[in-house]
Write a structure and sequence with these properties.
The complex is a heterotrimer of chains A (about 325), B (about 525) and C (about 230).
Chain A (H helix, E strand, L loop, with lengths): L1 H13 L5 E7 L10 H12 L1 E7 L2 H8 L7 E6 L3 H6 L3 E2 L20 E13 L10 H6 L5 E4 L5 H14 L3 H10 L1 E5 L2 H9 L5 E5 L2 H9 L4 E4 L5 E11 L5 H12 L1 H11 L2 E2 L9 H4 L7 E2 L3 H20 L1
Parallel strand pairs in A: 1-2, 1-3, 6-7, 6-8, 10-12
Antiparallel strand pairs in A: 3-10, 4-10, 5-8, 5-9, 5-10, 5-11
Chain B lengths: L3 H34 L8 H34 L5 H8 L1 H4 L2 H12 L4 H8 L10 H26 L2 H9 L4 H29 L3 H7 L7 H10 L4 H25 L21 H29 L8 H35 L1 H13 L5 H12 L9 H38 L4 H12 L1 H16 L5 H4 L7 H10 L3 H28 L4
Helix pairs in contact in B: 1-12, 1-14, 1-15, 1-16, 2-7, 2-9, 2-13, 5-13, 7-9, 7-10, 9-12, 11-12, 13-22, 14-15, 14-17, 14-19, 14-21, 15-17, 17-18, 17-19, 19-22, 21-22
Chain C lengths: L1 E12 L2 E10 L3 E5 L6 H9 L6 E6 L2 E2 L10 E4 L11 H6 L10 H13 L15 H15 L3 E5 L7 H18 L2 E5 L3 H7 L2 E6 L2 E2 L3 E2 H6 L3 H7 L1
Parallel strand pairs in C: 2-10, 3-8, 3-9, 6-7, 7-8
Antiparallel strand pairs in C: 1-2, 1-4, 4-5, 9-10, 9-11
The chains are: A alpha/beta (about 325), B mainly alpha (about 525), C alpha/beta (about 230).
Chain lengths: ~325, ~525, ~230
């Protein structure tokens, strides 16, 4: 009796008619129809003859809490400020991809994580209300007429990026910079969306966002009044990455997914579904609206080890400058 | 022969005990799991203590001001009858059930840099006023909690039997005498509880406090917990901070109980409360001014949310509507669970009585001081070895929401249950009404008003709750608040405004339906 | 034969104490009199099971009922107030005496209607108590007592708020019901005249003691020192 049942079950599970399923852990925003999820799913399923299933939610806490019990093949959507913690979980395998196709403005040598899109943090403003936006961080610090809304580095990735940005550009003077900014800060919010909402409703002249933010307004709303101020000192680089999980039940498929991420098809689509720069596409091949946006000359980036080494001290400086 | 009274008591203790176990697991088990995972607690830093100090300061100010303002407003509302009074009272409750993010945006549309108030100031040539700072935190918390305080106190006024007011009229009481003899004792009974509940709500404020506080000076304990989790990856410190938060809750609870006296207001056959102390024209005008000021403070920001969102509701993506349906199910499930659990706990509190009863009551309130982040993470850690928590994300969300809403439900239901027991307990016992029959025939009909209110509050609160679902959800799809955040995170501000309005509408509708049911023929 | 016996009963609440050691025969109509605060209600509460006793036993037909919960005791009781549930109809309030679940058979519904008719409230079943006069409310409570068919009826001054004529009417009805159902009556009374009207025995409660019952006429003809004190 046992054997036939077993055989039947086995037959059901290995039946060649049943397509394989790739399970990918992703941030919550992959679950919406207007996010990048559906386009990526359609694109990959068209070439893999499989089913791609996103499991959405808070990615890093899941990796850390679930550990080896995690039932997924790959992860997408981790930010560069999370890669160290994610790597330390020991849950990742090599992606086995050739990264020479990458066009990101920083040296990216990582056999665990692949950036699939990226951006620069920037102060974003409404060009119909502000026609003389500062052209450097130094100028921003002199502009007492401007007021700002931005994110707390303790709770937000972009806030953390600003903190490291200032740390890198101003070093010893960072505390003075924070004291200066504090005087013109409307408020600091826990997340990006609160800040951006406040900026949209006129609570501040400038909001901490991304150089790519104007693209959304231009493409989706045909509104070119939103600009990012480009600073001479350079801008902090942030990327979103993907990786293969070591105990993937479908490692080959997961690596195919990594290859798809680097493919031209994925790269030409990602700019407008995720409002960010493609990571493996030359700038001249970007969609026109994205390509034509003002682009910083210098990328500032602290790799995960450097960022980790600096952030606690930088946070103390930040707190000191902001609260004194 | 089995004794139904003893059986009923045993059942009350059993069900109350089960609820208590869930609450202990929710509040302390989760915390313990986090601490265990972290292999111990970590010492706090100076900045954490600064957060504790700021938290206490803003929570005390916010709760004190909310209750202080609620007294004259509730008093004016209680003694005036006017067209649309019921609707006004319902609408004035709305800020409390708003998701905090929506509430803040509505508030900023009025008090913000380019809000209505500053536009008027500009026109008058006055210098702009800055809302951000400690006063902004307090303003936002008062906006959020004044409705709750007003409602709690209004219930107190409704609970004074009209016979007393008649007696006061016969004795020639002035409004001031009425206040001293009838209203002040009621306030002495209810105000400390209202203060405590609001204090605890403000204790766990995080995003609102930071945003309205204007920066890291306004760091609360809950933000420090978030930081410990997400910035420092130090779960031991997160658990320690959560423990501190519970400590504050416990101290506040003990103080509130010291101040509060057991109610001596009870019974009387139900008749519509007729008031004889309506005073002259001056008092009438003052009441009208109070009611209008309170209504304007609470309703104008809501109107801004409505105006901002209304043009975009029609074009919302279909997912928003699906999420609305899903959130309604969560809200109704959480409501059923809350009411059942609260009734069980309230019966057990009264069956135990004394110190043990008070301890149980405190447990019912403790969830207010629990950090949602710690609860979410801890529950996940507790459930993970047994099953995949994501297979029942919505169920966990319902049960957690029930635990989080219980503090309100318990405060609303317990006093009336106690009063019901005092006035009619002997009669019911003498007639052999016990257990289910007593619940059905006496308790539920008599408690209809607080039950309806508690159910409305729970439903509305869980409708807007983001809570633990972000950690658990993965298969069952997004709730409405999740969709709202998704829209905001995707630059879709207009759609987000539309979704915020849908959320406001759905929360309010749930609240109104339950509350109307409660008022339907409450007890008469 | 004595049916209800209090055997060395003491009940202490704070610095208040009440002692009783006596019995009453079946069908007796007993009035409990005494100064305010002497413990008349405490006495009834002890019999009904609402007041805990610290020592002694309450016996019913020789059986100890001291620890039995109120609804299982052979007593029905009417309190000074709150004898009706204001949210239930008159019919439901009466029906509770028959079935606490309110799930009635047709025959039981007829019995409820019968009880209402017996106390003179035909047709008032669907009303709420607040819509009735004080006297009518008392009748509703009595109709329920009638249906409860308990061998002992305890009245803790339920008619105190009624006028003398109305109160007399109610007491007459009580006496009739007791006779019909052969119930034993223990009623607290403030008015000695009320006691005279229907009670054949008197229990005087004073100075922390509920004295043994004695025939009404005899007691009134030759009052004890304690009673003289009370009567003034």
């Amino acid at each position: 009796m046992r054997i036939p049942v077993f055989a039947a079950v086995a037959a059901l599970t290995v039946t060649p008619l049943q397509a394989e399923t790739l399970v990918v852990l992703a941030p919550d925003y992959f679950g919406s129809s207007w996010g990048p999820g559906p386009a990526i799913k359609d694109g990959f399923e068209a070439r893999c003859d499989c089913t791609l299933e996103f499991r959405t939610g808070d990615v890093l806490p899941r990796l850390m809490l679930d550990g080896s019990r995690l039932e997924a093949d790959a992860v997408i959507g981790l930010n560069t400020d999370m890669t160290l913690r994610a790597r330390e979980t020991g849950l990742f395998a090599h992606h086995a991809q050739d990264l020479s196709v990458l066009t990101v403005p920083v040296a990216w040598e990582d056999d665990t994580f692949i950036p699939f899109n990226w951006g620069f943090t920037a102060w974003v403003y409404n060009n119909t209300l502000l026609d003389d936006a500062p052209s450097s961080f130094a100028e921003l610090l002199e502009r007492e007429d401007l007021n700002l809304v931005w994110q707390d580095p303790r709770s937000s990735g972009s806030g953390l990026a600003l903190m490291l940005w200032v740390d890198q550009v101003f070093g010893e003077d960072a505390e003075a910079v924070w004291r200066n900014l504090a005087a013109r800060t409307v408020t600091v919010t826990a997340g990006w969306s609160e800040s951006y909402g406040m900026f949209t409703s006129g609570e501040a002249n400038m909001v901490l966002s991304y150089t790519t933010s104007p693209a959304y307004h231009i493409v989706a709303e045909e509104d070119d009044s939103i600009s990012a101020a480009i600073f001479d000192e350079g801008h902090y680089f942030m990327a979103e990455v993907a990786g293969v999980l070591a105990n993937a039940s479908n490692p080959d498929l997961a690596r195919d997914f990594m290859a798809y991420i680097l493919s031209e098809e994925f790269q030409s689509m990602i700019a407008f579904v995720n409002w960010s720069y493609p990571s493996a596409l030359l700038r001249e091949d970007w969609p026109a609206e994205m390509r034509d946006l003002p682009f910083p000359d210098t990328a500032i980036f602290l790799d995960e080890v450097e960022a980790e080494a600096r952030r606690s001290a930088a946070l103390d400086v930040w707190l000191e400058g902001m609260t004194r | 022969m089995s004794d139904p009274a003893r059986q009923a008591r045993a059942l009350a203790l059993l069900f109350g005990g089960l609820v208590a176990v869930w609450l202990v697991m929710l509040n302390f088990g989760a915390l313990g799991a986090v601490a265990f995972r972290a292999e111990g607690l970590t010492a706090l830093r100076n900045s954490d203590w600064a957060a504790v100090r700021f938290t206490l300061l803003q929570a005390t100010l916010s709760a004190g001001l909310s209750v202080a303002l609620a007294i004259p407003i509730a008093r004016a509302l209680a003694r005036r009858q006017f067209f649309g009074r019921g609707l006004l009272i319902t609408l004035m409750g709305a800020p409390f059930i708003l998701p905090t993010l929506v509430a803040v945006l509505g508030l900023l549309a009025v008090f913000g840099r380019s809000g209505l108030v500053n536009q008027v100031f500009d026109m008058l040539g006055l210098s702009r006023f800055n809302i951000f700072g400690l006063h902004g935190v307090v303003l936002a918390h008062v906006f959020y909690n004044l409705p709750l305080a007003t409602r709690i106190l209004l219930q107190g006024w409704a609970g004074i039997p009209s016979e007393r007011f008649r007696l006061a009229a016969v004795l020639g009481f002035s409004p001031r005498d009425t206040f001293r003899q009838l209203e002040a004792p009621m306030l002495r009974d209810l105000a400390p509880g209202a203060f405590l509940v609001i204090f605890l709500i403000c204790l766990t404020s995080f995003s609102v406090a930071l945003t309205m506080g204007g920066g890291p000076r306004a760091t609360t304990v809950e933000l420090a917990i978030f930081q410990a989790f997400r910035f420092d990856f130090d779960m031991g410190r997160a658990a320690m901070l959560a423990l501190v938060q519970f400590g504050l809750c416990a101290v506040a609870g003990v103080i509130a109980w010291r101040v509060a006296l057991p109610s001596s207001l009870g019974g009387g056959l139900d008749r519509p409360v007729q008031r004889f102390d309506l005073g002259g024209r001056g008092l009438r005008l003052r009441d009208a001014a109070l009611i209008m000021a309170g209504a304007a403070f609470l309703l104008v920001p809501l109107a801004m949310v409505v105006l901002r969102g209304a043009p975009h509701v029609a074009a919302l993506p279909p997912e928003v509507w699906q999420a609305t349906g899903r959130s309604l199910i969560v809200a109704l499930g959480a409501t059923a669970a809350t009411i059942a659990m609260t009734l069980a706990l309230a019966h057990a509190v009264l069956a135990l009585g004394g110190k043990r009863g008070a301890g149980l009551e405190w447990l019912g309130l403790a969830a207010l001081a629990a950090s949602p982040l710690v609860i979410g993470t801890g529950l996940f850690l507790l459930i993970r070895p047994l099953a995949n928590p994501r297979d029942f994300a919505l169920l966990v969300t319902m049960l957690v929401n029930a635990g989080m809403a219980m503090p309100f439900a318990l405060r609303l239901i317990l006093p009336d249950l106690r009063a019901e027991l005092t006035t009619q307990g002997r009669l019911a016992t003498a007639l052999g009404l016990h257990g289910w029959a007593r619940l059905r025939i006496v308790t539920l009909p008599r408690l209809r008003r607080p039950l309806g209110f508690a159910a409305g509050l729970t439903a509305a609160l869980s409708m807007g709750d983001l809570g633990v679902i972000m950690l658990f959800a993965e298969r069952e799809g997004a709730t409405l608040p999740m969709q709202l955040y998704r829209l905001m995170n995707a630059y879709r501000q207009d759609d987000a405004a539309g979704a915020a309005l849908v959320l406001l509408g759905a929360s309010l509708a749930l609240f109104v339906v339950f509350e109307r049911w409660g008022r339907g023929r409450a007890g008469t | 034969m004595d049916v209800l016996a209090l055997e060395h009963v003491t009940s202490t609440q704070g610095d208040f104490a009440l002692a009783a050691h006596w019995a009453i025969p079946e069908g007796a109509l007993v009035a409990v009199v005494g100064p305010s605060g002497a413990g008349k209600s405490t006495l009834l509460g002890a019999v009904a099971g609402f007041v805990a006793i610290n020592a002694g036993r309450v016996l019913w037909q020789g059986r100890d009922i001291s620890r039995t919960s109120p609804s299982l005791r052979p007593v029905s009781i009417l309190f000074q107030d709150n004898n009706l549930f204001p949210h239930l109809t008159v019919f439901e309030n009466v029906a509770l005496g028959l079935r606490p679940s309110l799930r009635l058979t047709v025959a039981e519904r007829q019995r409820v209607e019968g009880a209402l008719a017996r106390v003179g409230l035909v047709g008032l079943g669907p009303r709420k108590p607040a819509q009735l006069s004080g006297g009518q409310q008392s009748r509703v409570a009595l109709a329920r007592v009638l249906l409860q068919r308990k061998p002992v009826m305890l009245l803790d001054e339920p008619f105190a708020a009624l006028g003398p004529a109305l109160r007399k009417e109610m007491l007459a009805l009580v006496a009739e019901i007791c006779r019909e159902t052969r119930a034993t009556l223990l009623m607290v009374s403030h008015e000695l005249r009320d006691a005279e009207t229907i009670a054949d025995q008197l229990v005087l409660v004073s100075d922390g003691v509920a004295h043994a019952p004695a025939p009404t006429q005899q007691v009134l003809a030759d009052p004890s020192a304690a009673l003289r004190n009370y009567l003034g």
